[in-house]
Amino acid sequence: MSALEIIAVVAAGFGAGTINAVIGSGTLITFPVLLAIGYPPVIANVSNNIGLVPGAVSSAWGYREELQGTRARLLRFAPFTAGGAVVGSVLLLVLPASAFKAIVPVLILVSLVLVVLQPRIKAAIEARRTEHRPDGGSLLLGGIFGTGVYGGYFGAAQGILLFSILASSIDGELTEINAVRAVLAGIANLVAAIVFLFIADVAWLPALLIAIGSTAGGLLGAGVGRRLPDPWLRAIIVVVGLAAIAKIVL
Fold this sequence. Notes:
Helix content is 81%, strand content 0%. With 250 residues, the chain is mainly α. It has one domain. Helix 4 (71-94) crosses helix 6, helix 6 (138-153) runs antiparallel to helix 7 and helix 6 packs across helix 8 (174-199). The longest helix is centred in the middle third of the chain and has 31 residues, at 97-127.
């Protein structure tokens, strides 16, 4: 890797860690960068996943005040996220690379739609917050498991999906629910990373560089991410997401 590529990967890791701390979809920044510097899609995805784990840890630390009193929920939800992530990561490795190249552009397109619609999703959720919502039932747990599968396989915009499911199913302040979302998404990342460490090919230098950037981004995510105007943030994500699709398809 050249010096310019190293800087680009660290910067992408910082951006991804920041965005993941705010709401998720950071993979739509780091994944295209790894593709652009020449890594095959599956190796890029695996290395990106591992690199983003420290950022998930640092963002969880940043949300430590909001996480007070959420222990029972996390203990209930975490096994479903973890189980889904195992399934998703195994699917990534057992399905042929051609399947990944066919599926991921569709997942990225879905992720980009979610990113664009995120303000409307948030507004709709807030409009329904007057209803009392208990800790959900089997439908909620199934949704958490499903987002875990998605996170283990690819993960872009997993946070938006997970936040939508949680916020529309359980009671509590949105900031607290978003903190739970950040921890569960981080668990999916971590579990998938453990699977990849044992049975996948990893490009360790970019994984390390993303880890450095994402750790800093995760710590500063709330402050930095919320200073960037939302339309700019969404525009950046859409551009890099479309670049990733073009890189895979063309």
